[in-house]
Amino acid sequence: MKAMILDRFGPPETLEWREIATPVPAAGEVLIRVRAAGVNPVDWKIAEGGLARLFPCGFPLIPGWDAAGTIAALGEGVTGFSIGERVWSFCRKPDIQWGTYAEYVTMDASAVAPMPANASFAQASTIPLAGLTAWQSLFDVAQVRPGQSVLIHAGAGGVGSLAVPLAKWAGATVIATAGAANHDYVRGLGADHVIDYAAQDFVTEVKALCPDGVDFAYGTVGGEVLTRSYQTVKPGGILVSITDKTDKDLGEQLGIRVKYLFVKPDGGQLRRLAGLMDSGILAAPEIEEFPLPHAAEALDRSKSGHVRGKIVLTVD
Fold first, then answer.
1. What is the pTM (predicted TM-score) of this model?
2. 66, 135, 202, 241: which could join 219 in a potential S-S bond, CB 3.0 to 4.6 Å?
3. Where are the domains of the chain?
4. How far apart are CA 105 and CA 303, in angstroms?
5. Confidence of residue 316 (pLDDT cuts 50, 70, 90)
6. Average pLDDT over residues 239-243
C-alpha cells in the first residue's frame, strides 16, 4: 500500500509518499480500506514529536487517527462486520506508528462502527475523533442535562461544531464563541448566543447572559482563554478542557469541578453518533479536501488555525 510516512519527527514537509507493506489484521482486528482520513491538530503535533512523552512512538510512522472506508479483511474471532461494509473509526492505538494517512489501516473491531447511512466517506471521516471528544466531554464527564447552560469555545471548529448541536439536542442553552464571520454558521448549528471573541470580552458577555455563571464551560481553546473560563462557571458547575491540563486548586477555590479529557476510541458511541446523523440531529461540518499525497499541505493548513469545520484527506 501507499502511505504518508515519517522517518523522523519534523514539520509537515518531512512526510513522504511511499510504498509500505499492507498490514494484516490480528485477532480481534479489522483491516479498513481507507477512503478518507480526517485531519486533526493532533496529527501535526504527532509529526513534530509533541506526543512522544505521552505515547510510545515508532518509525516509520504514519500519522492520522480518523478514518472512513470499507472492511477489507477480518481478523480471527471478529463477527458483526462483512467484507465491503462501510465503516468509520477513531483509530488511536496504544502506540503511535500505524495511522490512517494510508490506503489501509488495522483497528480493534470494538472501536469500529458502521458509517451513517447517508454520509460520504469524506463527511464520515470528520466525525470520529471530534465527535467522540464532544460526546465524552458533554455526556460522560459533564453529564449535560435539559435546562442547563453551556459555554462552548470555538463553536465553528472541529470539536465545537459538533459539541454545539449535541448540547442543543441534550436540551441545554448554548453559548458559543466564534469570529464574526462564523456567527451565522454557529447559530445554524444550534447556538442560542454567539460571542465574538475578537471584539467582545467573553467573561463579561457570559455573565450578562448567566449572572451566576454557566453549568458547563468547554475548553476547546487553551492558554489564557481556558484560564479565564474558570470565571464563567457557577459554583457546583464544571469546566472540561481538551487542550491544557486543568487547575484543580483553582477549581476548588471557586467551588467548581474541573476535568481534563483525552478522548478514547469507542465503537458503541460511534453507533450513537451515526444514529444522530441519520436522524438529522447531527451533520458533518464544512469540509476542505486534499488528496492524501498532499497531506503536508493539509497539515500546514491545520496549523494556521481558524479552520471552519474540518480538513479531510481523500484516498483514491
1. 0.95
2. 241
3. 2-127+284-314, 130-260
4. 24
5. confident
6. 97
